[in-house]
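Why do we care about 3D structure at all? Because function follows from shape, and shape follows, mostly, from sequence. That is the central idea of this module. The next example makes it concrete: a single protein chain, its amino acid sequence, and then its structure expressed as tokens.
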Amino acid sequence: MSSDDHRTKVDFTVSKESKRQYWDREERIEALIEKCSRCLEHGTQEKYQFAAQKLAGELGPLLEAHTSRHLLSFDEAVTDHEDWNFATFARWYDEQESFIRFFRTEYLTASQSRREWYVDGLEAALRSMTAIAEQSGIVHDAYAGRADAVGFEMKLGEHLQDGEMDIGDPLELVTDKQVDTLKWLVCGGTGLGKSTGTERFIEDYLAASQRPGRDYKVCDILGMRQGENWLPDVPQQQDDLRRVREEHGLPPSFVDHDDYEPPEIEILHPITQGFSKHQLPFDVDAEEFVVRPFTVPASAFRKPVMVSLLMSRLSESEEATIREVYDDIEQAKDDWSLKDLADEIAGRQELSDKHKSKAIGVLRSLQNEGFIRTAADQHTLDWDAVLSDTDTYSIFSQSLCDSDLSALMTFAYLLDSIYRQRENSNADSEVVLVMRELWEVMPHTRRRSFDAREAAVQEAIGQIGMKVMRQNRHAGIHVVADTQEPNDLLKSIRELFNHYVVYSANKDTIDDIFEWTQNNRTRSFWSTMTAKAGQAGVVGQAEPAIENRDIEFISPVEVTPPSHHHFDVKRDGTGWHARAKYFTPLEVCPECDSDAIERSEDGYYVTCTECGERSLDGSGGRCEELRRPASTDAVHWQDEVPPELEIDPFGEQVGGGTAPDPETFPVRAFAYECLTRAPGTNTAKKHIYAAFNEFAADHGHDRWDFDSRSKLTEFGTALKQHIEGSLKSTTVETPEGDAKAYQDLRLTKIGTEYRDMTGR
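And the structure:
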């Protein structure tokens, strides 16, 4: 490699800093134009003076520095621009100080005609500078046209084009001609339309699968939040999104869409402890719950996941033994439980009792989540059946998991299992993996869980994710993921996507995306970015860019909302409440309240036989209501740990001593190490709670939320069992005022040290 071809770290840093300065100037120019425009709209002496000073002292010099040209030399380049006025602008340019002086000292006493002359000159100067900025590509003039941006089967949005653009109408916003499988990353902040766009892109896959030539199995495997992904069979309800669809020439929802049928869906959720006591949507006509529970065989977790989890409580010296334990149990049994693994650990002579207790404590806490069982369990997923049914949209949810550990373990299982099923498959169909808010589960050095077990599972997820991203083409897997910032993901993952949809972003993010896609026109892309909700730019695997290397992106694109309802937490609360609300059929005419109504064949319209009114009914005649499986006849979901799978603690003592193991018995160990009886001494409960939380965190547990009444009760009940004598309450004076306290109880030296960690 010649020295001319080699970019040193210094070269790279200088280049990057030069780009940043260039972009900063563009941003300042755009901001100044907007600010001065607002000043002219106000029309006061103070605002006119401010605008004149900004034009003369900042905007003009910035434009000349940015373009390396005298502003009056632009006459030939912008002579046809409707806002360019050479004569007036030249007068302003030569008399800037007199304009500033007039607005500062003479404006209020000047005649009306003299005021208008100076105001017109100031406005002409601003318009002329704006024309120069538009011609230089710093800001865009109004987009004169729109071109349909299409996907495999559906319209995905409208490309906003100026008069000089000619890249096709319609244009293919995404294509797999160059790559067999696509890896989408949709990124943008809250409220910009990221998740709305993601759902439209998924809808395109679903529609394409209904047509000959393509066959996709769509699996939505990450739904941590309030059932936000439970609604693809509900017609679009949001008025704003319905309006945008109509502006794009489409029906407001799938109800009136002749060419698209909503998908058959299945919603699956791990059956954690107490799951059957949750209120879940129940289909009254089908007499079944819409949500189906599933369990995970312990043997389905690969070695990296299980070993990482166990090692979160052990030291490196025990890792070889733990790996050997896993290998031995794998060889001995095709289908094994966490109890089998715990029994194998308990029998290892090379592990100390302390290490056995810690490892078994991890397995017990995991087993107590409830959903990890064996392959023989009645709720184990049949992956062959799930993946072969391409007519059904499979939605996996973690919304009702009681802990982040359950949610992370479930996601790790789903991601790995689908990849393994596809790894050696010769199926004609392809799988589309949908992962919403990917940053919530992927590891990152700047965002690591405080719980060592969760952090270990996240690391394993990162390894699985990298394998999926690198081998997805061979496995026939498309990926549609969204996140707020690409930098929320590991570099080894975020740079492997090949199709980026960007809803506003900072300059560094755009620079990175263009580097990952081997493009370089970052400045041009940045100039098209807007902060308007629903507008995005697309980089990578767009048809115009494949056909013409000079076209590196498509932007801005006003993305079409999905035809199904988009979850809105303020409007809907949760996905399950939304289903019950929207799947409540009309029973009387909205016009005359008559119950003499007839429903159309598809169920979405009712006609009143009394007044003749025809009304839309988004329920389609379907009725869902919230019920608890535990209270529903003929539904028997065993959400407690089966007795034969329960793991007994490895003794109650550590190393033959008298101290309880804090890994297994945190409250008992805290009482033993940090509290002592002291007649006449009372200790504020809030100080004991603070000390316990630091003690728990120091031993790998989550801090307790003592603002929760249930946690206060749980802690008090446990403490009574492990403190000698009765536990009575009183009050004590503290610097913050009177506080509830435990009577005749004080913190030990160790307990005081833990309390002081909180700054008390």
